[in-house]
Design goal:
The chain has 21 helices and 30 strands. The protein is α/β, with parallel strands linked by helices. It is globular and about 75 Å long. Bound molecules: adenosine-5'-monophosphate-propyl ester. The site of adenosine-5'-monophosphate-propyl ester has 22 residues, from helix 12, strand 20, strand 24 and strand 25.
């Protein structure tokens, strides 16, 4: 496998080209290159035509109202997302089609047809109403990957209550912050979830989080584990899902929502310590995710589609729940780890259900590469016809491995670039017409205006690198940061006039292909999960022994990037090896294990510019063992030399 520092080089030197296989191209949903010119000429007409395929109570008066940077799509249109994802399919042959095929980690499974999903969702919508949840009230969902998660999301959408899903890997404190920011009225959780055979005690985390959340009135608890696993329930506040749903009436008329009503809030990391509540709305979002899902994954009526993400992230929202269900697809959902009970679990699921479309992350692919091709070889993967990736740049080596060992050399790969904020895929091949270059997300989706610009916001010439921006609004774009519109403006729209800044660096090649190279801000992408350096730094300085901390992302063979924390201890505290694990645990306890630093490096000082800014580039060089470049702006050049010596100690094991 390529060394991490070689990965970027390999990416930039990649020049292989893969044409769409002829048999695939002939049957593809999109076969005509003209789609790009048409959409470019009149993006509003393009999106309006897509929106026509949804069910509207009232058609829109205007496709787009753009008062930069605030957009309204399908102005005055009225629709309901749950109706579009469920009810309208019941009048067709999809009524008895599997909507969700769910596979539990221990091996249990459950299949919900569209009709069954309807009953579950309408009953739970009535449960929510019974608990006093009204249109506009926020509901926090902190659940494992069980069917009750999409059911609860769709029930919220049905009654017009925005949901805020918090990934089950977040710790109590992170959950509390998100509940409080959204001012949620109800929290939905489970007694626990399975992960590699272990139980993750979700309800216990909720109990801790709820010590400081005055807005929460009720907690609904799904029994996932049961048996001897004890779950204390607080009288008057905590209720079992199965008790409530058993007593709930069937049928619940969907609320007629405005196209611009909030569908959900999803928190993501930014450049400050406080996570941002990204707001997505109804009409444009559903148009964007259903269109991209249909065209990019080449969805056909009999496809079995599996996105391996967790619904706690945007990929799960848009491409497990809303996009696929709006399209009447069969969507597979898996609860657990890829190596439980053995390293062929993914391939076993593909064989068991005959998965045709697979969407996963580069970090997973690199893990599979490490485990070796003998695991997929044990299973029949011949049902697969298209593969996708998302979340981070894919190194060409992993791309080729995926193509050969999972796709059998016959499946196109759609490398899809997008973000929590964009709501939908914005840069991706259309598999029937786009030639692929391993490592490149290829070209913007029809109607999407992406560009690479320089420091001054001017487009770079072909063959050059710069910053990735979006120059016009798209239907699924975030509308604001919950409760903080000014932050929305500052964060995304202030660097250059009239442009949305993605936070990513990218190269635009001679053929006009985009090569997204990664974040250029203080956001780190660890195994496809977004983590803000400031969040981890605040968690560290919250520890009684820590005076100051600086966190950077260093290259990691499997995770893409890993967190390295440079820590200055308080006077008199000794840098003993036990403190390293203590600090790692402390961060995991405060944020969640996804933010646990890979390395803790004790240092006496941090390299700062004369104006006091920490020079993260230098820290990255130190953490990756590279020779240091120009350090002339450093306030105290000796700091780096001392750091390097410490760093050498940490690697050799002396530092722990
Ligand atoms: O840096 C880009 C990277 O993931 C970031 C967005 O993270 P998040 O909001 O958590 O959403 C992830 C799933 C949509 C982006 O700013 N990223 C995502 N997809 C790709 C990517 N980088 C390169 N290639 C991709 N295909």
């Amino acid at each position: 496998m390529a060394q991490p520092e070689k990965a970027l080089e390999a990416l930039l030197e990649e020049d292989r080209l893969f044409y769409p296989p002829q048999d695939f191209a002939l049957q593809a949903n999109v076969r005509d290159q003209g789609i790009y010119q048409g959409a470019q000429k009149d993006p509003e007409a393009f999106w309006a035509a897509q929106a026509e395929s949804l069910d509207w109570y009232k058609r829109w008066d205007q496709v787009l109202e753009w008062k930069p940077p605030f957009a309204k799509w399908f102005v005055n249109g009225r629709l309901n997302v749950a109706h579009n994802c469920i009810d309208r399919h019941l009048k067709t042959a999809r009524k008895n089609k599997a909507a969700i095929i769910w596979e539990g980690e221990p091996g249990d499974s459950r299949i919900l047809t569209y009709q069954q999903l309807y009953y579950e969702v309408t009953r739970f919508a009535n449960v929510l109403k019974g608990l006093g949840v009204k249109r506009g009230d926020r509901v926090t969902l902190y659940l494992p990957m069980v069917p009750e998660l999409p059911i609860a999301m769709l029930a919220c959408a049905r009654i017009g209550a925005p949901h805020s899903v918090v990934f089950g890997g977040f710790a109590a404190e992170a959950l509390r912050d998100r509940i409080n920011d959204a001012q949620a009225k109800v929290v939905i959780t489970a007694d626990g979830g399975y992960r590699r055979g272990q139980v993750v005690p979700l309800k216990k985390n909720v109990d801790m989080a709820l010590e400081g959340t005055p807005s929460v009135e009720k907690v609904v608890v799904v029994r996932r584990i049961g048996g001897p696993f004890e779950t204390p329930m607080r009288q008057g506040r905590d209720l079992w899902w199965h008790d409530l749903i058993g007593a709930a009436p069937l049928h619940c008329p969907p609320e007629e929502m405005d196209a611009e009503d909030m569908l959900y809030i999803l928190y993501t990391s930014g450049t400050t310590g406080k996570p941002k509540g990204v707001v997505h709305t109804t009409g444009g979002y559903l148009t964007g995710v259903s269109t991209t899902h249909r065209m990019i994954f080449d969805l056909k009526e009999d496809d079995i589609y599996w996105c391996t993400a967790d619904i706690g992230w945007v990929t799960g929202h848009s491409y497990i729940v809303y996009g696929p269900l709006a399209n009447g697809a069969t969507s597979v959902m898996y609860e657990g780890a890829p190596d439980f009970p053995a390293r062929d679990r993914f391939w076993a699921i593909i064989e068991k259900y005959g998965v045709t479309l697979l969407y996963t992350a580069p970090t997973a692919i690199r893990t599979f590469m490490k485990w070796g091709p003998q695991w997929p070889e044990r299973r029949d993967l011949s049902s697969l016809r298209l593969l996708g990736t998302v979340g981070e740049p894919i190194n060409p080596e992993a791309w080729i491995w995926y193509h050969r060992h999972i796709g059998g050399g016959r499946c196109p790969i759609v490398d899809t670039w997008w973000q929590t904020e964009t709501g939908m895929i914005l840069i991706s091949p259309l598999p029937g017409i786009t030639s692929l270059k391993p490592g490149s997300a290829t070209v913007p989706f029809p109607g999407v205006d992406a560009q690479v610009v320089d420091e001054n916001g001017r487009p770079v010439p072909k063959g050059s690198g710069g910053y990735l921006v979006l120059k016009s609004p798209w239907p699924a774009m975030l509308r604001t940061i919950y409760g903080d519109p000014q932050r929305y403006v500052n964060q995304y729209w202030s660097r250059w006039e009239g442009m949305y800044f993605t936070g990513d660096g990218a190269k635009w090649d001679e053929d006009g292909y985009f090569w997204v190279l990664g974040r250029v801000d203080d956001v780190i992408n660890v195994a496809g999960h977004r983590i803000g350096t400031m969040e981890v730094e605040s968690a560290l300085v919250d520890h009684p022994t820590v005076a100051e901390a600086a966190v950077i992302g260093r290259a990691h063979e499997v995770k893409g990037q890993a967190l390295a924390a440079f820590v200055i201890l308080k006077e008199g505290v000794r840098a003993v090896p036990e403190l390293i694990s203590e600090l790692k645990e402390h961060v995991a306890r405060k944020i969640g294990s996804l933010a646990r630093p890979e390395d803790i490096i004790f240092t006496a000082e941090l390299p700062k510019t004369r104006s006091g800014k920490i020079m993260r580039r230098l820290l990255r060089d130190v953490a990756e063992g590279r020779s240091l470049g120009d350090t002339t702006t450093l306030a105290d050049p000796t700091v780096v030399a001392t750091l390097s010596a410490k760093e050498a100690k940490a690697w050799s094991g002396e530092g722990g």
